[in-house]
Amino acid sequence: MTSTTPFVTPLFTPPSSCSSEYNVAWFKRFDLVLNALDNRQARCHVNRMCLAADVPLVESGSAGYLGQVTVIKKGLTECYECQPKPHQKTFPGCTIRNTPSEPIHCIVWAKHLFK
Ligand SMILES: [Zn+2]
């Protein structure tokens, strides 16, 4: 993917955004990070890296037809992990089908197959 503006460099990261390759030094290269991740573990990792690198993070997510966007900036806002989260009862289809990473993902997929 190429950028249509000189100010934005879109990057796709592989499913494991928690890889050691994506460390503080890697995140320091950016002026702003836009999250579009599908699991809490990866969100926590990016949150911590952006705090350590002092790079603003725009965290986003969706559940069904509902979406949310939150700006996280070190020293100005609470971070992703400080924000209270409801117990997750639904999971994105892509996670369940393609990249299950927790036992609950397999259970939800098995229940889906029995319906
Ligand atoms: Zn925090």
Explain what you see:
There is one protein chain. With 115 residues, the chain is an alpha+beta fold. It has two domains: 1-84, NAD(P)-binding Rossmann-like Domain (Rossmann fold); 87-115, no CATH class. The protein is built from four helices and three strands, in the order αβαββαα. The chain has helices spanning 24-27, 40-53, 93-97, 103-114; strands at residues 33-34, 57-63, 66-72. Strands 1-2-3 form a three-stranded mixed beta sheet, covered by helices on one side. Helix 2 links the parallel strand 1 (33-34) and strand 2. The N and C termini lie far apart (38 Å). The model has no long low-confidence stretch (mean pLDDT 83). The structure holds zinc ion. Zinc ion binds at residues 78-79, 81-82.
Précis, in short:
The protein has 115 residues and is α+β, with helices and mostly antiparallel strands. It has 4 helices and 3 strands; from the N terminus they run αβαββαα. The protein binds zinc ion.
Number of helices: 4
Model regions low in confidence, pLDDT < 50 over at least 5 residues: none
Number of domains: 2
Assign the CATH superfamily of the largest domain: NAD(P)-binding Rossmann-like Domain
Corresponding CATH architecture of the largest domain: 3-Layer(aba) Sandwich
Rg of Cα set: 16 Å
Cofactors and ligands present?
zinc ion
H and E order: HEHEEHH
By CATH reckoning, the class of the largest domain would read Alpha Beta
Overall mean pLDDT stands at 83
Assign an overall shape. elongated
Portion in strands: 5-15%
Strand order of the largest sheet: 1-2-3
E-strand count: 3
